[in-house]
Write a structure and sequence with these properties.
282 residues; alpha/beta; Rossmann fold; 2 domains; seven-stranded mixed sheet; four-stranded antiparallel sheet; 33% helix; globular; binds adenosine-5'-triphosphate; binds magnesium ion
Length: 282
């Protein structure tokens, strides 16, 4: 039976198997963008601790600052207020310890699947032999279900296949923590469920710390140990909820279970207010 536990302290209760430490910490974080003659406050007072080995999903309406939050964690953009810490260290400049799967696949169009997946190894493991790098890349290409497509170019692949490449390209160098920004947002329903299962299986096997951004509450519940619900812009953490659903999970079957339905109903009641009003950009 599922239970939903508001987890306002953010560190504490939650399903196994977290090892307990804080991987990413956002403390009183604010972000303001300068626009022509105006300032746009995108994030305000964000307090959030992401635990090691936990699958954390962040849901919020479009424009509430989800991608901005990941950019701050990756060190691609500075905070305007407060601080972001990675394993207790202040994030200043690009945070090379995180693997970041951005909202766009960003594959190199002129490079094959094998070359796209190998490239991070050339940068991060320059001391490896070419054969070692190729073997590792081929292993990941197979794991994401793209065996046989090694010599294809991105334009020869479907959207779902391109997403698989971007996942392989990040997991290939084995980052301890993964930031994923709506990786399955633009995909058809079946492809989305298939890739959710791929990710669930990878997490089951390796227990990586994952921060997964989505605007799809069902996806967040399917994947996450905890779901962070953000408010409309300026984005704040509205609440953090523990998803008490057994693992391993099957994305194709989970939604049929009463336990899932109960969690979804309770989470939706908290999320609904944030997504039912359309917000202007100014
Ligand atoms: N570099 C920037 N300069 C100015 N404004 C920006 C910049 N980056 C983002 N914004 C604005 O900040 C707000 C939040 O953007 P962000 O991309 O973080 O939202 P999001 O929650 O990821 O939305 P979505 O779900 O649509 O991807 C938007 O209004 C956007 O226009
Ligand atoms: Mg975004």
């Amino acid at each position: 039976m599922a239970s939903v536990q508001p987890d306002s302290a953010t560190v504490g209760a939650g399903p196994a198997p977290p090892s307990g430490g804080v991987a990413l910490g956002f403390y009183d974080v604010g972000k303001v963008f300068d626009r022509a003659n105006t300032e746009l406050t995108v994030l305000a007072d964000v307090h959030l601790e992401v635990r090691e080995n936990e699958f954390t999903c962040i849901v919020g309406p479009s424009g509430c600052g989800k991608s901005t939050l990941l950019n701050l964690a990756a060190g691609l953009s500075p905070v305007s207020h407060g601080r972001v810490e990675f394993r207790g260290r202040l994030v200043q400049g690009v945070n090379t310890d995180v693997g970041y799967i951005t909202q766009d696949s960003n594959l190199l169009p002129w490079a094959t699947v094998l070359e796209n997946v190998s490239l991070p190894l050339e940068i991060r493991h320059a001391n490896w032999s070419r054969q070692q790098r190729t073997e590792r890349a081929l292993e990941w290409i197979e794991r994401v279900g793209l065996k046989g497509f090694e010599r294809h170019y991105p334009h020869q692949l479907s959207g779902g296949m391109q997403k698989r490449v971007s996942i392989a390209r990040t997991l290939v160098y084995d980052p301890d923590i993964l930031l994923m920004d709506e990786p399955f947002g633009a995909l058809d329903a079946i492809t989305k469920l298939t890739l959710q299962n791929l990710l669930l299986n990878l997490w089951q096997e390796r227990h990586k710390t994952i921060v997964f951004v989505t605007h799809d509450l069902a996806e967040a519940i399917t994947l996450g140990d905890r779901v962070v619900i953000m408010t409309k812009r300026p984005g704040r953490v509205k609440t953090v909820l523990a998803v008490d659903l057994d693992r391993p999970r099957d994305a194709f079957r989970l939604a049929e279970t009463p336990a899932y339905a109960a969690v979804h109903r309770q989470f939706w009641d908290l999320f609904r207010d944030e997504v039912t009003e359309v917000d202007s950009d100014e």
